[in-house]
Model the fold of this input.
Amino acid sequence: MSAGTPKSLASSGQKPIQEICHPLGAEDTASVLTPSPDVGNTITSIGGKDLSLPNGTPVETSSPASSSSLLNRLQLDDDLDGETRDLFVTVEDPKKHVSTMETYITYMVATKTTRVEFDLPEYSVRRRYQDFDWLRTKLEDTQPTHLIPPLPEKFVMKGVVDRFSEEFVETRRKALDKFLKRVADHPVLSFNEHFNAFLSAKDLNKRQGLALLSKMGESVKYVTGGYKLRGRPVEFSAMGDYLDMFTQKLGTIDRIAQRIIKEQSEYQVELREYGPVYTTWALSEAELQGPLEGVASCMANCSSALDELTQDMSEDFLPVLREYVLYIESMKIVLKKRDNIQAEYEAKLEAAAFRKEDRASCTQVPTDVEKCHDRVECCNADLKSDWDRWQNNKRQDFRQLLTGMADHNIQYYEKCLAAWESVIPLLRDKQPQETETEED
Amino acid sequence: MMADSGPKEVAVIGNTELTSAELDNNIKNTMVEIEKGTSLLRKMEISVAEAEKRTGKNTVNMQEIYTVYLIETRPVDALTEGITPDSLWRRYSEFELLRNYLLVTYPFVVVAPLPEKRAEIVWHKLSADNMDPDFVERRRVGLENFLHRVASHPVLCNDNIFYIFLTEDKDWKEMVYETGFQAKADSRLKAVNAAFRVKNPDGRFTELKHYSDELQTVLSQLLRVRARVADRLYGVYKVHGNYGRVFSEWSAIEKEMGDGLQSAGHHMDAYAASVDDILEEEEHYADQLKEYLFYTDALRAVCRKHELTQFELEMVALDLACKKQQKEELVTGTVRTFSLKGMTSKLFGQETAEQREAKLQVLEQQLKEGEEAVKEKNTESDEFVKTAWVDIERFKDQKDRDLKEALISYAVMQISMCKKGIQVWTNAKECFNKM
Done:
C-alpha cells in the first residue's frame, strides 16, 4: 500500500488557507471517513445509513482522508497563483451501497462557493459514476466547442478487476476529483447549469435514455458533418497532429511501464527464493550463521521494498497515463466538431455568394451566414484558450507524474540501501575467539 | 591472496610426535603468517599473468585449440623494479595433473580446487563457451588463486614438484610420473568399499562428510538462484532504456517540456547501461562461492582417506583376531568354529603331533607379523587423523574468514548499486522538475 504523503492534484479550485473550513465541518456529522489502509474492506451501508468507524469510535478529524482533502486545498496551483477562487469542489469518502438490484459505490461531492449562481454557499451530495458520466455528456452537448476533461474508464471487466477493491475505488476517486476540479476551474464550463445541478441537486433528474440518444445524435451531426472543409487554419492542424503523436508516445510509455512491472515481478519471484537459501545455509554453519542470517533478512527487506514499488507504479502511474489517452480522444472529437462548423460556414458562405450573384441588388450578408461565422469565431477562440489551458495542465500533470515515478524509485533504493548498510556491522562483527584485528 | 612462506614447525608426513599444544601452535603460526601480510611463498611472487590460444595435435592426432596460461615468478626480496620475472606456459591439464599429484601425495590435506573446466553455472549474458574471453579471464584469475592457495599452505608449499611446476618448463610431466604417485592413488573401488564397511570411523570425519554434503547442496542452489536473479535484474534495467528512446521522441514534439524530457531520457539510458558493470562485479562474488563449492570435494576426499585407513586397520585387526583364534584351537585341540581344518580332520583323521607343531610355528610367526601390522596401521591411522584434523581446522578458519569477506564485499556491491540508483533517479527527477 502506498503510504505517505497523499498526492496533490494539479489545477484548480483552491482557497487560501485562511478561508478553508473543515471539509466535514457542518455537514454529515455522523459520516464515515475513507477507511485507512490498515482497515480491511470498505464499509458497507444499507439504505444510505451512516456508520461510525469499525471499532466504534466516533469520527476523528485527523484521519488520512481528511488530511488528504486538506492537502488538496493547501496545494497552490502554480499557474493560478494569486487568482481568487470562488468555487471549490472535492470528491471524497467512497461508500459501498448494497441493494437487491445492484451493488455500487457513491462518492461525496463537497462544494464551497461564493458564486451567486448557487443558492447556498456549501453543498454536500452523494454521486455515483453514472452521475459523473451524465454530467460529462451534458457538458459535451451544451458546450460542444470546449474541451471537456475526461472521466476514468467506465467499463471494467468483471473478474479481471475488483470494482470494489480499495485500490480501484481510490484510483477512481482521484480521477473523478480531478475531473470536477478541471470543470470548476474552467471559466465557461463552471457556469454550466448542469454542473450546477450536479453539485447542488439532491436528486439528479437525469433522464438517462434521452441524454444518451441526444448525445449520439449530436456527435453524429458534428462529427460526420457532410460539409467539406476547405482550409483548416494551421494552428488547428498542428493541434491534431500533436495529439496524434502524443497519443502514440503515451501508448509507448504505457507499454514500457507495464513491461517494467512485469520484469520486476519476475525479479521478485527469484529474489523470494534467493534470500531463504542463505537461511538454509546458516543452519550448517557456526561462525557464519549470524552473517548469513543477516543477509537473508536484508534480502527479505529488499523484497518487500520492491513489492511497494511495483504496487505504487500500478496504482499511481498507469491510471493517469490511460486517463490522458481518453482525454485526447475526446479532444480530437472537439477538433472535428470545429472543422465541421467551419465547413458548414464555408459552404453557406459559398452558397450565399452564389445566390448574391443572382440577385444583384442584395448587398446584405444573410444572417444565417453571419451566425455561422460567429460560431466559427467563437469556436476557434474557445478552443484556443482551452488548448492553452490544456497544455499547461498537461505539463503540470506529467511533471507530477514523472517526478512521482522518480520518487518511488528513489524510495525503493533508499530502503534497500538502509537494509544493506545495517547488515555491514553485523558482517564485520568480531567473534571473541579471534585474536587478530581485522582491517575494515 | 598472496602466498605464505612455510613456517618451520609444520606437520609433515613422518612426524608423528605432535602434541596438541604443538598443533595449536602450528595453526596459530599459519594464521599469523597470513595475517601479517609478509606472506610470500619462499620469498616468491607468483602470478598467472596471461592467457593465450594455441593450436596443436592432441592424443588422437586431431587438431585442437587450447588455452595456455603464463605463470610468472619473481623473488620478492630482489629489487623488483625492472627485473623481468621468470615465466613459463602451462595448460589447464597440467594444473589438473599437479593437483592430482598433491591429492595423492598429501591425502590429509584439504587441497584447494581448480576453477571450472567448463563454464557451468552462468547467467544469460555469459555463454557457456570455453573460448569466451570473459570466461578465460575468470579462469586465469582462478588458476592464480589456486597457486596462491597451494603456495601459502604450510605443507604443500614445500613440495618440490610444485616448485618445479612454477619454475621449470621442460620435463615437468615426466618428473611427476616418476614419483610414482599414480600407484599410490587409492582405487575408487577400495574407497567405496571402505565407506560402506568401516565399523568405527572417527565421529568428527562423519560429521565433516555430512557438512560437506550440505555445503555442496546449499552452494549449488545458491549459485543457481543467484544466476537467475542476475538474469531478471538485467531485464529490469534494460527495459528502462526504452524510456530513454521514447522520452527523446516525445521531447521533439514538445516546447517547454522538451529539454527536461530529453535530459531525463539520457539518465534513463545511463541507468539501463549501468547494469552491465554491476553484474560483472557480482561474478566475482559467484566465483568466491564456487571455490568453496569445489572445496567440498577436497573435504570429502580427506574423509574417504580416513575411512580407507580405518578400514584397513580394522581388516588387519580382524585378521589378527582370526589368527589368534586359530592358534587357540590348535593348542587346545578343539574346533570351536566351523573351519575347513575341522572338516578335513574329521574326514581324514587327526594330524600328527609334528604336523601340529609345524602349524603352530607358522601361526606364531603370522601372529607376530599380524601384531606388527596392526601396530603399523594404528600408527598410520592415528597420524592421519592428527595431521588431517590440523589441516581441517586450518581450512575451517580460512573458510570462515574468506566467506565473511565475500559477504561483506557483496553487501558493499549492493550498497554501491543502491547509491547509483538513487543518483540516477535523483538526476532524472531534477530534469522532470524542469519540464
Helices of chain A lie at 64-74, 129-142, 166-185, 193-200, 208-224, 234-284, 289-358, 367-427. Strands of chain A lie at 44-45, 87-98, 103-113, 122-128.
